[in-house]
Amino acid sequence: MVTRRLPSLNALRAFEAAARLGALNRAADELSVTESAVSRQIRVLEDELGVGLFRRVHRGVRLSPAGERLASALGQAFETIRRGVDEVRKGPAEIRVRVLPTLGTRWLLPRLSAFESAHPDLKVRVSVLWESMTPDDVEHDVGIVMDENRWPPERLIALFRERLTPVCSPAYLKRIGRLDTPAALRRALLLHCSGAPDWPLWLKQAGFPEAETDGGEWFDTMDMALRAAERGRGVAIADLAMVADDLTLGRLVRASGIVVTDRTNYHVVRRDTGRARPEVDRFVDWLLAEAAATDQGDGETAAVTEEA
C-alpha cells in the first residue's frame, strides 16, 4: 500500500490556527511567528494541494469550501494530539482505593502489583483505614466495604462472602489436636478479633454452643490475631479468603474441617455513579475476577447461618 506524503506540519499548523482564529495576525501571535511567515506557509500548502484554502476579503480572510473541509479535519486531529500529549504529561490515571485493614494487607495489597503490571497506564493508591468508605467520601474512588446500611443496596457490588474456620500454626495443632471435641477446645487458647462474634458463631455451628468464649486474647483486627496464630500463640478464626496464601505455604493450618459461611459479605463501592470512568471500570472488573479466583476452600463440613 502506497502512503501519500503529508504536507509540512508547520504549514498545516499555520492554516489550522488561521482558520480557527479567523485572522492571520492572530494565528501569528499564537504560533509566535510573524504574519508574513503564516501567510507564506499557507501559500506553500495551497500550492502543494492545488486548491485555494482562503478567499481574501477586504478585512481579512474567509475559508473556501475546500478550506472549510480541511479546517474541520485538522481541528479534530490537532485536538486529539493535544489530548494525547496532555495525558502523557500528567502521567498515569490515578485510582484511589479505601479498604479495611485485614482485607487490605492480606488480600488486596499482595495482588496489586499484578494489576499494575498489566495496566501500566493506571496508578492505584490504597488507603488502609479502620473505617469503611462512606457515600460522602470524596477522597477515594473505590472502596471495599462489609455489610452495612450506609450505602443504598443498588450501589453495592458483591465481591465475596466471609467463610470462617479456625487456624493455627502446624506446631500448635500438633500440640492440641484438631478442634473436634470439647476437650480439644479446652486445651486451645482462643484468639479473638475485637468486636466480631466469629468464635461464638463458629462454635454454635460446629456443635459446641455451650463452649466458653470469654477467655483467650483479644486483638483489634483479624490480621493481628492471625499473626499471633502464625507464631504459635493460639487458634484464631480466619476468613479463608484472607489466609489462602498462608495455608498454601504452610504458615497456618486448619484446626477443624468445619467452615461457617456467614451472611457477611464484602462489597465494592464506587464514587463515579454519574459518569463512569473507564479506568475505574477496569479496576473493578479486576477486583471481581480476583475474588472469583480466590481459593476460599470448601471445608470438610460447611454450615450456613440463617438469620432472620
From TrEMBL:
Kindly indicate whether the keyword DNA-binding belongs to this entry: yes
Write down the SUPFAM superfamilies for this protein, in alphabetical order: Periplasmic binding protein-like II, Winged helix' DNA-binding domain
Q: Where are the transmembrane segments?
A: none
Q: Which CDD domains match?
A: PBP2_GcdR_TrpI_HvrB_AmpR_like
Q: What is the superkingdom listed in this entry's lineage?
A: Bacteria
Q: Where is the HTH lysR-type domain?
A: 7-64
User: What biological processes does GO assign it?
Assistant: DNA-templated transcription
Q: What's one GO MF term for it?
A: sequence-specific DNA binding
Keywords assigned: DNA-binding, Transcription, Transcription regulation
Q: Which family does it belong to?
A: Belongs to the LysR transcriptional regulatory family.
Q: What is this protein called?
A: LysR family glycine cleavage system transcriptional activator
